[in-house]
Amino acid sequence: MPKPLNSDAVSLWHNACIATCDERMRVIEKGALAVRNGRIAWLGAVGEEPADLRRANLERHDLQGMWMTPGLIDCHTHLVFAGTRAREYAERLRGATYAQIAARGGGILTTMRATRQASLEELVDYAAPRLAALLGEGVTTIEIKSGYGLTLADEAKMLRAARRLGERFPVTVKTTLLAAHTLPPEFASRPDDYIDTIACEWLPALHAEGLVDAVDIFCEKIAFDTRQAERLFDAALGLRIPIKMHAEQLSNIGGTRLAASRGALSCDHLEYAQAAEAQALADAGTVAVLLPVAFYGLADTHLPPIAALRSAGAAIAVATDCNPGSAPGASLQLAMSMATRLFALTQEEALAGVTRHAARALGLCGKCGMLAPGLAADFALWDIESIEELGYWSGFNPCHAVVRAGALVHGALPRGDASN
Ligand code: NIG
Ligand code: FE
Question: How many whole angstroms separate alpha carbon 316 and alpha carbon 349?
């Protein structure tokens, strides 16, 4: 006999093909899901609902066979920025490299100059259509990094803009301080001083304001080294703030091993990581976040060690990396498509990568990213015939509706649903 639910369960979403994205990637073909107080109270097969869910006065939604997945999670974005780098993209199309453009003061510094000029409200306005596009694709949780301000005031402005986006949109926003993105002109030739300033002054101040959910660093030959990363990680961990790293994107300087040894939530990019590093990630429970849109955008050819990550049993997430330089765009479905086509992930791995594993990369394990009792009732409804259609379409979006905490926040319920 199924266990009865508390009688305050409020809605039942039934007749859906439910892709739970749980550890077993279970699919319930004719499924139903009950929501109480914004959380999943029960899910299972239609007809097996606990007795109190069969009461007539429940709010019922007939999903008419649509597919349901957890709300998608974009666990690595630089969504807040001003301006574009379309000119630099044109230069790269003519043969200039990302590193060459950075070396002459372009790249991240180009976006820094535009972002410093913009007000907080302008940053929110610029990011809003990108966030709307992601929401329309089924995204209910997103990470947003700073990293284009590079002064205390401008990093704070970016993080406040990210928080404001979380208030204006029905999307959960996790903020990451990425002041260690590149060396700003004020600290030219003084990278250690810059890292010390972030670690001792900016991070404590921004943390005291509740603006920092995690700390990230671009660990790379053209950015910061592992010693500097270690210094920053010590400061973050001392404040009990989780850490992340942009690691081995353009070369291998040992960032992944350091980040894993310090228990980082995630290491992101990893094109130049090797098998031993894949094992270190798996052993540490650090999520490998793959960013195939940046790989594509930079015309990279050096593939991340997918087979080694897989055989080591590392958790693999997939994200957009939305940013004006390496990955201009705001489509997580395109990132899934590229993860399968360019990186040879299976479609199931790509789906787990934008749900369960992405949640873990944000420290949200057990809160969202799966459809299971007790987790947030965040889910997307899809006009698709088979689950393989997610990450199959590019430039076409089959998302029908998005539900967050049990409330419809995007799209419409299927026609003919009695509750419409
Ligand atoms: O994830 N690698 C560093 N950071 C970004 C690019 C940022 C930019 O070019 O503006 C990335 O690819
Ligand atoms: Fe990035």
Answer: 8
The rounded Å distance from CA 285 to ligand 2 centre is: 20
Which ligand 1 atom lies nearest to the CA of residue 111? 10
Helix (H, G, I), strand (E, B) or coil at 43: strand
- Contacts of 55 by beta carbon, 8 Å cutoff, 6+ apart: none
Distances, alpha carbon 55 to alpha carbons 50, 52, 77, in Å: 10, 6, 43
- The answer, yes or no, to whether any atom of ligand 1 lies below 6 A from the CB of 218, is yes
Please report the atom of ligand 1 found closest to the CA of residue 76. Answer: 1
Ligand 1 contact via 111 beta carbon (within 6 Å)? yes
What would the pLDDT profile of 21-55 be if each residue is shown by its tens digit? 999 999 999 999 999 999 999 999 999 998 877 77
Tell me the C-alpha distance between 162 and 178, whole Å.
Answer: 13
All structural domains of the chain: 11-70+370-411 (2.30.40.10), 72-361 (3.20.20.140)
Indicate which residue's Cα is closest to atom 1 of ligand 1.
321
More confident residue, 346 or 417: 346
The pLDDT of residue 8? 55
Residue 176 · residue 145 · CB < 8 Å = yes
Q: How far is 127 from 110, CA to CA, in rounded Å?
A: 17
Kindly report, residue by residue over 154-193, the tens digit of the pLDDT.
999 999 999 999 999 999 999 999 999 999 999 999 999 9
Mode of pairing for the β-strands spanning 11-19 and 27-36: antiparallel
Taking a C-beta distance cutoff of 8 angstroms, is the pair 282, 260 a contact? no
Q: What is the pLDDT of residue 2?
A: 46
Claim: this prediction has a pTM higher than 0.90: yes
Q: How many CB atoms lie within 10 A of CB 119?
A: 11
Q: What are 19's two structure tokens?
A: 């892709």
Q: Is 325 in the pocket of ligand 1 (CB under 6 A)?
A: yes
Alpha-carbon distance 232 to 235, whole Å?
5
pLDDT bucket at 289, cuts 50 / 70 / 90: very high
pLDDT above 80 (res 229): yes
Q: Are strands 244-247 and 27-36 parallel, antiparallel or unpaired?
A: unpaired
